[in-house]
């Protein structure tokens, strides 16, 4: 190093750099460790006999010759274990809410096809599966209402009699005089919008391994969960084990998309069986089980109306939502998770003075509704953006100009929405302009009109939305729910060798958090990237951990890492100042080298650490500080993230297949930590949003049976389905936020369905039909056109 070369000049900032993911070498080389890779000696395996009835009383369970299968160790129903475990109850302070108890196996009756009833434990999964064939369960079928519009009726059969109703949650959000606004409106548009049931389909199925330590009387659960801290906390109560004797670890996790963020019966089951049998117990679901028993999402029926002035200004919005919450209120998120967020976020990024949103969450005999990438906002954005496009069409106004007039402007932040959400600051208008500029919107319109003149069915659709990411302690998805969603702790330690360990309560399941959080620490602490080990996914790492969900890990984890790194850096510099006989204000650290601005003196981080920890006497006892810090960050209100999506589609008039010709995303996720990872998140989320818009659907027939039983029935996007995606990054300044980070992992699933629905509606507008249900499959387009024809209005149909 020369006299004039300060360490701060040796390397540019890491935040904002396209750093290759540090976790990829092990994952790409097949060296990752997932739950199913962990097989302690003596591991037993569980197979489950699941309900084939949607709603029935369990009369008798006959195991027949199941014990004759070689390798079978034990067979259990709930009566064998209910004295050894308490149910998990997702509590809430919401008035009128009923929290269904969640047990590891069906208790008394079954409430959906796929609910676990009997557990067979064997030396191998093969033996356990073979034994299931011998078990016979006698049911007394009970009446049920499979659809939410029927289940919500007063005389509907009850799934949980003790609740006295199927409607276990009701809420209303309102501001202003909605009725007066509608009386004054020049234009009123309305629709009955629905996004059908989806499920996450991660690459790795749900997997659990519980190990009981008889010497320590403690339990370790390895789980493919995104929320090991939440799971530890609830199981501590269910199993009556203190946190010191219960550890929950999420090793490498092959995707979650929200579905692995809740407590599942199988997690409870392997824990109680491991303690009971004093042997490791493993359960790994197969794809059929994942499709039929993993939490599902989006099944919201939204009846909404929008009031608009003749100048195209939004003045009123009202909505009634019936959310199909499935058979149980999922732990810990409650039955309010999806439905409440639909009406909370329905006004979106628009100015709106008058609003009324009502929800009812209704029990039906289906798997529980739980977190899914976007949580409520894909449905609310779909409904609102369809209304916006419908209103623009009624006024014969360009949809871009219509949005421009109504999106919250920069000078209006912070803006409180009609539902009470506060948008601190985000690039609402800039995202709209950025998407249009990137796509060359005017030229796209010309291309569309030229194609239409040739008889082709081509359409353009936009969707603008806003979301809260990194939610702070002021807001939760359901008041009083049994978790802390609003803070995150980072513990950073430098050991005697100068190596740095950073521990977090988050849990990565593919987001690249080991890389991005290390980048933040490098910039704040001044160390080398290769000297940092980021630890996560383990409930034992920090005092309070919850996990990764709601686009929180970069915001809260990055904020906590920033605070902790600053404290540790201060300790390092104070120690170095004494050792170097320099003023602490004259020192800085970069690439692990502490240097003085006033001299050529330098020390390495390793030398300082050695002096602190192993060379007793070099620093006086009263000045010696351990090079550690634990800091907690709370963004309080959360941070606003916004985006505009733009899609151009073409529909084949012979097959009704939809092809996406152009796709652009302009997104504001604040200061970007790693542009490569952000681009990957956008691509993946848009692909998932395309699936929701065009392909994915869990269907339950009138008999309560799930007919999407494999990936031949439940269609997910493949490489040929996903177009090239143009991305515009807008890094709007974020006040009062440590690091300036916003979450962005969910945006594609929020914006893509609405943008594609609007594009398909635009392509079909000349035929007089409008998209109100997603996915908009070729079959649905055919039905829309057929219904129009049957109503006596001629449409163009295939030759």
From TrEMBL:
Highest taxon listed in the record's lineage: Bacteria
Pfam families named among the record's database cross-references: Ald_Xan_dh_C, MoCoBD_1, MoCoBD_2
InterPro entries tied to this protein: Ald_Oxase/Xan_DH_a/b, Ald_Oxase/Xan_DH_a/b_sf, Ald_Oxase/xanthine_DH-like, AldOxase/xan_DH_MoCoBD1, AldOxase/xan_DH_MoCoBD2, AldOxase/xan_DH_Mopterin-bd_sf
SUPFAM superfamilies: CO dehydrogenase molybdoprotein N-domain-like (SSF54665), Molybdenum cofactor-binding domain (SSF56003)
Broadest EC class assigned to this enzyme: oxidoreductase
Coiled-coil residue spans: none
Keyword Oxidoreductase recorded: yes
GO MF: iron ion binding; oxidoreductase activity
Sequence ranges assigned to domain Aldehyde oxidase/xanthine dehydrogenase a/b hammerhead in this UniProt record: 29-143
Keyword field: Molybdenum, Oxidoreductase
The EC number(s) this enzyme carries: 1.2.99.2
Protein name stated in the entry: Carbon-monoxide dehydrogenase
Species, as recorded: Pseudorhizobium banfieldiae
């Amino acid at each position: 190093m020369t006299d004039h070369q300060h360490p701060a000049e040796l390397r540019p900032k890491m935040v904002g750099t396209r750093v290759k993911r540090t976790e990829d070498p092990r994952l790409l080389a097949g060296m990752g460790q997932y739950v199913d890779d962990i097989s302690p000696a003596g591991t037993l395996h569980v197979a489950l006999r699941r309900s084939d009835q949607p709603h029935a009383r369990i009369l008798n369970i006959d195991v027949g010759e199941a014990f004759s299968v070689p390798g079978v160790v034990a067979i259990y129903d709930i009566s064998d274990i209910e004295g050894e475990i308490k149910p998990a109850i997702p509590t809430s302070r919401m008035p009128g809410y009923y929290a269904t108890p969640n047990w590891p196996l069906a208790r008394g009756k079954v409430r959906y096809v796929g609910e676990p009833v009997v557990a067979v434990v064997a030396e191998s999964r093969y033996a356990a599966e073979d034994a299931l064939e011998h078990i016979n369960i006698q049911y007394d079928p009970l009446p049920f209402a499979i659809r939410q519009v029927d289940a919500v009726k007063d005389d509907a059969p009850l799934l949980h009699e003790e609740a006295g109703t199927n409607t276990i949650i009701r809420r209303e959000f309102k501001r202003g005089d909605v009725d007066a606004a509608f009386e004054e409106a020049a234009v009123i548009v309305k629709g009955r919008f629905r996004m059908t049931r989806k499920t996450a389909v991660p690459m790795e199925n749900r997997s659990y391994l519980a190990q009981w330590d008889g010497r320590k009387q403690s339990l370790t659960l390895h789980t493919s969960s995104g929320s090991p801290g939440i799971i530890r906390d609830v199981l501590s109560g269910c199993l009556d084990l203190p946190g010191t004797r219960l550890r929950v670890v999420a090793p490498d996790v092959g995707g979650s998309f929200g579905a692995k963020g809740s407590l599942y019966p199988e997690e409870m089951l392997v824990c109680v069986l491991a303690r009971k049998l004093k042997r490791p117990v493993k359960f790994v679901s197969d794809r059929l089980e994942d499709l039929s028993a993993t939490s599902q999402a989006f099944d919201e029926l939204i009846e909404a109306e929008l009031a608009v002035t003749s100048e195209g200004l939004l003045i009123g919005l009202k909505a009634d939502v019936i959310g199909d919450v499935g058979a149980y209120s999922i732990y810990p998120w409650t039955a309010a998770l999806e439905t409440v967020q639909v009406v909370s976020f329905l006004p979106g990024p628009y100015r709106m003075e008058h609003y009324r949103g009502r929800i009812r969450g209704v029990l039906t005999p289906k798997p529980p509704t739980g977190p899914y990438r976007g949580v409520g906002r894909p449905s609310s954005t779909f409904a609102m953006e369809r209304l916006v496009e419908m209103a623009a069409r009624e006024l014969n106004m360009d949809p871009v100009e219509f949005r421009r007039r109504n999106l919250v402007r920069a000078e209006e932040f912070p803006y409180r929405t009609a539902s009470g959400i506060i948008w601190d600051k985000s690039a609402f208008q800039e995202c709209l302009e950025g998407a249009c500029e990137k796509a060359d919107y005017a030229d796209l319109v010309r291309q569309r009109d030229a194609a239409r003149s040739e008889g082709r069915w081509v359409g353009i659709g936009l969707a603008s939305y806003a979301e809260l990411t990194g939610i702070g302690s002021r807001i939760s998805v359901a008041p009083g729910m049994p978790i802390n969603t609003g803070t995150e702790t980072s513990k950073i330690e430098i050991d005697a060798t100068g190596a740095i360990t950073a521990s977090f309560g988050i849990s990565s399941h593919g987001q690249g958090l080991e890389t991005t959080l290390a980048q933040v620490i490098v910039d704040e602490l001044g160390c080398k990237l290769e000297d940092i080990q980021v630890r996560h996914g383990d409930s034992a790492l920090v005092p309070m951990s919850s996990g990764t969900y709601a686009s929180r890990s970069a915001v809260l984890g990055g904020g906590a890492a920033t605070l902790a790194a600053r404290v540790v850096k201060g300790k390092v510099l104070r120690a170095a100042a004494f050792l170097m006989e320099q003023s602490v204000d004259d020192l800085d650290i970069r690439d692990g080298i502490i240097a003085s601005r006033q001299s050529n003196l330098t020390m390495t981080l390793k030398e300082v650490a050695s002096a602190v920890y192993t060379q007793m006497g070099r620093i006086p006892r009263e000045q010696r500080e351990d090079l550690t810090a634990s800091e907690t960050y709370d963004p309080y209100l959360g941070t606003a993230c916004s985006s505009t999506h733009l899609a151009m589609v073409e529909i084949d008039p012979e097959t009704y297949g939809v092809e996406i010709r152009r796709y652009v995303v302009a997104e504001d996720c604040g200061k970007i930590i790693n542009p490569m990872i952000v681009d990957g998140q956008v691509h993946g989320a848009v692909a998932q949003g395309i699936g929701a818009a065009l392909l994915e659907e869990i269907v339950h027939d009138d008999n309560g049976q799930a007919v999407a039983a494999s990936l031949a029935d439940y269609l997910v996007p493949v490489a040929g389905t996903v177009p090239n995606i143009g991305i515009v990054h807008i890094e709007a300044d974020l006040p009062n936020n440590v690091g300036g980070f916003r979450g962005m992992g969910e945006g594609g699933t929020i914006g893509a369905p609405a943008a594609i629905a609007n594009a398909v509606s635009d392509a079909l507008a000349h035929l007089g039909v409008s998209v109100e249900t997603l996915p908009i499959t070729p079959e649905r387009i055919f039905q829309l056109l057929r219904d129009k024809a049957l109503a006596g209005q001629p449409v163009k149909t295939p030759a």
